[in-house]
Design brief:
The chain is an alpha/beta fold. The protein has two domains: 175 residues, 3-Layer(aba) Sandwich (Rossmann fold), CATH 3.40.50.720; 192 residues, N-(1-d-carboxylethyl)-l-norvaline Dehydrogenase, domain 2 (Orthogonal Bundle). It is 49% helix and 9% strand. It is built from 17 helices and eight strands. Strands 3-2-1-4-5-6-7-8 form an eight-stranded mixed beta sheet, sandwiched between helices. Helix 1 packs across helix 2, helix 2 packs antiparallel against helix 3 and helix 13 crosses helix 15. It is globular and about 60 Å long. The model has no long low-confidence stretch (mean pLDDT 95).
Length: 384
């Protein structure tokens, strides 16, 4: 099957590499002049490095690169069995692109969007045949991170998700099936990792370095929320938070932070700008965190219980199944363990009690416990 990828940025070129390594003939297209040539040159360097490290043979590196052909016009995508778009996160641009593609590809061609937060149903809404549109959300960098969220829209043909799941497995990926809701699994469930950390900082309960230290040392996370936001880019993280908040009709669970907004307004975007929550100027010392064990435990548990509650609510609403929820967070954002497993280990009654105390103290819907969590405590049941 011929695979076409539209968008030759980091994500698009990564997806092209994954498809080519899986043995497909790939066509890479971008409207920006020179973007495809730049991407292909970058891919050659990447593949050569993989060969040097022994992760690919020299022949495999050469043949993989040789399977990716540049396209100068959308018409060259005709004959593809699968098209994956990885363009700008703009609903109008994606709808226009798919509507144009429909006239060029066969009726059997699957149109997949790599959107991370936009509605697959809305993107398909501009097509005459929305039943062949589906979300395939890869994580960056696509050749490294195994997770792919498979997201059918309302009109997606019923057998298509299963076909895509099998294809992603053949590509060596870990696919999870989820409903077409804002943020899908990962960008929805992970919001409290950033949002509650920002709230703790804004209340003056701890500084950023201490909050990050708590999540690493107590929670076992590879990075704390502030250093991770600096890595992602505060503009990117803030945009996703705003998008999810607005898409959920301003549910206070997803309310953005003024602190993060000010970071973006000041140009402190993180590592890419040299300054974010931390200063990345050469020679600048990293702030020393507080090491009080009880403080660190309290910080970690408050953020963790909010993540657990979000995972429970996603399960309650049928966003994804239990195992796919656990896989999404461990394989997509490298959480130390599944959040529902964590809930079982800490005790569901303990989780519920913490949320109820937070809600009583703040009087905010932000802390409302999931009805599923309440039911399971009453029934003395577990997630696993």
């Amino acid at each position: 099957m011929k695979v076409a990828v539209i968008g030759a940025g980091t994500m698009g070129s990564g997806i092209a590499q994954v498809a080519a390594q899986a043995g497909h003939a790939v066509v890479l297209y971008d409207t920006r002049r020179g973007a495809v040539d730049k991407a292909l040159a970058g891919l050659k360097r990447t593949l050569d490095k993989l060969a040097e490290k022994g992760k690919l043979t020299a022949d495999q590196a050469t043949s993989t690169h040789g399977r990716i052909a540049p396209a100068g016009d959308l018409k060259e995508l005709a004959g593809s069995g699968l098209v994956i778009e990885a363009i700008i996160e703009d609903i109008g641009s994606k709808k226009d692109l798919f509507a144009e593609l429909e006239a060029l590809v066969s009726n059997e061609c699957v149109l997949a969007t790599n959107t991370s937060s936009l509605s697959v149903t809305a993107i398909a809404g501009g097509c005459k045949h929305p039943e062949r549109v589906i979300g395939l959300h890869f994580f960056n960098p696509a050749p490294v991170l195994p997770l792919v969220e498979v997201v059918p829209g309302i009109a997606t043909q019923s057998a298509l998700p299963t076909r895509c799941i099998e294809l992603m497995k053949a590509w060596g990926k870990v696919p999870v099936l989820c409903k077409d809701t804002p943020g899908f699994i990962v960008n929805r469930v992970a919001r409290p990792f950033y949002g509650e950390a920002l709230r703790i900082y804004e209340e003056g309960l701890a500084d950023m370095a201490t909050i990050d230290h708590a999540m690493r040392s107590v929670g076992g996370f590879k990075m704390g929320p502030f250093e991770l936001m600096d890595l992602i880019g505060n503009d990117v993280n803030f945009a996703v938070t705003k998008s999810v908040f607005e898409a959920f009709f301003f549910d206070p669970r997803y309310k953005p932070s003024i602190t993060q907004q000010r970071q973006v307004e000041s140009g402190r975007l993180g590592r890419k700008s040299g300054r974010g929550y931390y200063d990345y100027t050469e020679g600048t010392a990293t702030p020393a965190p507080k090491t009080d064990a009880q403080l660190l435990d309290d910080i970690c548990w408050r953020i963790l219980v909010m993540l657990i509650n979000e995972a429970a609510e996603a399960l309650n609403l049928g966003i994804a199944g239990r195992d796919d929820l656990e896989l999404a967070m461990t394989k997509g954002v490298n959480y130390p363990k599944g959040l529902l497993q964590w809930a079982d280990e800490r005790g569901l009654a303990h989780c519920l009690g913490t949320l109820e105390r937070l809600q009583a103290e703040y009087g905010e819907d932000r802390y409302r416990p999931s009805p599923l969590l309440r039911r399971m405590v009453r029934e003395n049941s577990r997630f696993h």
